[in-house]
Specification:
The N and C termini lie far apart (91 Å). This protein is mainly alpha-helical. The longest helix has 27 residues. The radius of gyration is 25 Å and the shape is flat. The protein contains 13 helices and no strands.
């Protein structure tokens, strides 16, 4: 006697649909393929979740919920903030096809709501003032997103070897130590670069005071025109 299948549920259908999108992109999700994966008739899927557009909407909501569930790890503000940035970075890289689907629906900003809330809470716990918290959240999010965009683009490009002669000619006038020249000539590991830059940014966010805003008296003072300049 064959083993009984798990009861078909909307949540189970959405989970399998999400996996298919993650593996092959939105175009890889068809109702027939999904039905084959689940071992059910297509009509059963329509009964539980509606048509394909309704299913894609559910997939988007599930992905956003999963990506918003970020738990900081570490015993210090530095470590905890770095862990949030690292988790968001890994999520964006791992779910590129789902991010594409979310972007097509104009919901990209919702992907970052959970991470932003966690970052803000961690910065508040570190006793930063409101302006520093806001700037810190924006800076870390921008850093993560920028890193992901560059890493994806680099992954699609062919590997480029460094011309040793051209490189040494370019740095020759800088008077650099040979060890520095050799280290700079080696290809950078993207993970290592991200971790290093994240650590530096988080350190700066935790230590730096707020930048002056447009409401600051320092920026409200009139600027003296240069001599000879038109008023």
């Amino acid at each position: 006697m064959p083993p009984a299948r798990d009861p078909l549920t909307p949540g189970g259908i959405v989970a399998v649909a999400l996996r298919l999108v993650e593996e092959g992109g939105p175009d890889a999700l068809s109702m027939r393929k999904l039905a084959a994966e689940l071992g059910v008739a297509v009509t059963a899927i329509y009964w539980h979740v509606g048509n394909r557009e309704a299913l894609l909407d559910a997939v988007v909501e599930e992905a956003i919920a999963e990506m918003g569930a970020i738990e900081p790890v570490g015993s210090t503000p530095q470590a905890r903030l770095e862990s949030v940035a690292s988790t968001l970075h890994d999520q964006l890289l791992a779910h590129s096809h789902v991010i594409e689907l979310i972007s097509d629906r104009g919901l990209t900003s919702r992907v970052f709501l959970g991470a932003r809330a966690v970052l803000a809470a961690e910065l508040a716990a570190a006793s930063l003032d409101p302006e520093s918290i806001a700037l810190g959240v924006h800076a870390i999010q921008l850093h993560v997103v920028g890193s992901v965009v560059l890493e994806r683009r680099a992954a699609r490009l062919p590997a480029q070897l460094v011309d040793d002669g051209a490189w040494r000619s370019a740095v020759g006038s800088a008077g650099l130590d040979e060890a520095v020249v050799a280290a700079l000539a080696r290809p950078a590991l993207r993970t290592e670069v991200f971790e290093f830059s994240t650590r530096a940014l988080v350190t700066a966010v935790l230590q730096s005071p707020s930048m002056p805003t447009m409401a600051s008296p320092m920026l409200a003072e009139p600027i003296e025109p240069r001599k000879g300049a038109s008023p």
